[in-house]
Amino acid sequence: MIVLFVVSLVTALIASDGLGPAQTPSRPLTIHPENHHYFLWRDRPTVLIGSGEHYGVLVNLDFDYHRYFDTLAAEGMMLTRVFSGAYVEPQGAFNIARNTLAPLPGRLVVPWARSDQPGYANGGNRFDLRRWDESYFARLRALAAYAAEKNVVIEFTLFCPMYEDTQWNLSPMNARNNVNDVGNVGALDVYTLDRHGGLLAIQDAFTRRVVTELNPMDNVLFEIMNEPYTRKVPLEWQQHIADVIVETERTLPKKHLISQNIANKSGIVAAAHPAVSVFNFHYASSDSVSANYALNKVIGDNETGFKGTSDTPYRQEAWEFLLAGGGLFNHLDYSFAAGFEDGTFSYPSTQPGGGSTAFRRQMKVLRDFIDGFDFIHMHPDDSAVQAPSGLTVHALVSDHAMAAFAKGAGSATTLTVQLPAGTWTGGWIDTVTGATTKTIELVGGGPRAIDAPAYTSDIALRLTRNP
Q: FRET label pair with 216: which of 29, 274, 352, 451, CA 20 to 30 Å apart?
């Protein structure tokens, strides 16, 4: 009964004047037809690189998304993750200062309307899961449209497991927080096909509504769930949500990509759903790309953290991951907070990750470096570069180009590169500033020794063969 009511309501709202999704003519972000490890967006081969806030831009009414997307656009960032509101966090969770995913009392907006009955755990009335909060969907449409205007892609994360009771106690899906007598289950049974306490119909209905609302947008991909593996969310449930997305868009004009979060650091994708085109890892190593490259799908690293607060480890993570053949990188950037949507919040040293204006400049260097190549026709091949002990190198190569990243041995060193015959030009690139620190000209092919200039911790190499 709930499903029929919700589907009817969605249909009516879309048909009504002024409540339908915002219109945009562009075709959606898709997979590049010539190389499925990368994206095609607005007719350009694309590697998605971002450094964004802690996922509360939609649900936290104190967060100014206009200023946020203005900042991302000005600094060359093109990706952010957005959580839906089915999951929120209490202040202080995971030792995060000024957590955007922990709105203050009265400043939370979620898909479901408030009832007339008090008792929500974080203040205000409980929720009615049979009614939508139209202000939420209005904010969603406006936010997505503004991000599109600023050339920012939204990875919309539909669901997140309840890590602890502290998060489950704040969820509108918890029976304590709604008036519908659904969700009377433990935190580990929220996302199941058989022990969900009536929540599956609610989850399906929300998925249909948000997918329908965002269908006109070209700058959206849908992530099924954040970190399902941390609480052993059944693969069958995840695949069910993927089916709901596909079925919802079957009769809609546009078809959007679906991403799935696989593991922390690295792992092997098993039982891949045919509708999933992007497989994401967190705190990822380059092994997560090489181990799954044969899938011929985009491999992403869409959350960083737990390596301190300085820029260097996250910069190196990004370069290693993308030069190993990854197609998406998103840094979890704690310098964004409500009141600091320009990314200038000075967080404490206890923060579980980093982020800064300086770091985003470094990510723009990486983006410009990759965009300077015909990367669609390149492939990862670390064997094309031999390095001395203590140096780790990753490389993308083709018959006409080589892009390499070296980490370690923080002084002048020599690499031996395998090149096809021809005349090659290029240089060594400072990964912090983007400056070319030493130019290179080579004639001939085969193994060639190239001396690097002195550097601090890592350096990049660009080589292209002249016509």
A: 274
